[in-house]
Amino acid sequence: MNAKDMGIFICKLRKENNMTQMELAQQLHVTDKAVSRWERGIGYPDIQLLPALSESLHVSVAELLSCKKSLNYSNEEVTNIIHNLDVYKMESFRQDRKADKISLVCMIFVAACVYISGHGSIELTHSGECGLFFNIA
Questions:
Q1: Which residue of 67, 89, 109, 134 sits 20 to 30 Å from the alpha carbon of 15, by its own alpha carbon?
Q2: How far is CA 127 from the centre of its chain?
Q3: Cβ distance 11 to 24 under 8 Å?
Q4: Residue 47 pLDDT
Q5: Mind spelling out the 3-state secondary structure of the chain?
Q6: What is the pLDDT along the chain (137 residues), one digit of tens a residue?
Q7: CB within 8 A of 92, min separation 6: which ones?
Q8: Statement: the pTM of the whole predicted model exceeds 0.70
C-alpha cells in the first residue's frame, strides 16, 4: 500500500457515495484540504480516523487498508493487510516527525525575528502531544 493507491481508492469510494470532499471532511471533523491531500496521495488519514472513514465510505477498515473491495480475504491477504497497517503506522509517524521539525524551524524563525526586533524575552516550550508554543513577554 502506498499513499497514491490509498488516495485513488478513497476518491473512488467518495464519488461512488456521491459525496464532495467537503461533505466527507465534515463527517470526519477534518478539513476538505486534508481529504484533498489524502486523495492526491500526499499523506494518509490519521490512524484514529480509519474506523470513521471506512464507515463513511461504506467499506471495512481491512478493505480501506488493502485499497480494494472484497468479501473474503485469504490468509495471505490478511497478512498483507497487517503488513500494510505497520507500513501505514510508520509512514504516519514519519509525517508527524516531519511536521514537528517544520514547526520547530518556524518557531525558531519567529523567535529570532521577535528577538531581533527587540520586543522583550521569548519563552519557547514543546509539548509532545500539542506541538510547540512560544510566549513573548
A1: 89
A2: 19
A3: no
A4: 81
A5: CCHHHHHHHHHHHHHHCCCCHHHHHHHHCCCHHHHHHHHCCCCCCCHHHHHHHHHHCCCCHHHHHHCCCCCCCCHHHHHHHHHHHHHHHHHHHHHHHHHHHHHHHHHHHHHHHHHHHCCCCEEEEEECCCEEEEEEC
A6: 688 898 999 999 999 999 999 999 999 999 999 999 999 988 888 888 888 998 999 988 888 888 888 766 666 666 676 677 767 777 766 766 667 777 777 777 666 666 666 655 555 555 554 455 555 55
A7: 44, 46, 47
A8: no
C-alpha cell read off for 115: 528577538
Please enumerate in sequence order all residues whose Cβ is within 8 A of that of 86, keeping only pairs 6 or more positions apart, or say none: none
Instruction: Cell numbers for 97, please give them.
Output: 516527525
> Which cell is 131 given?
506541538
Q: Is 39 exposed, middle or buried (0-12, 13-18, 19+ CB in 10 A)?
A: buried
Task: Determine the residue type at 16.
Answer: E
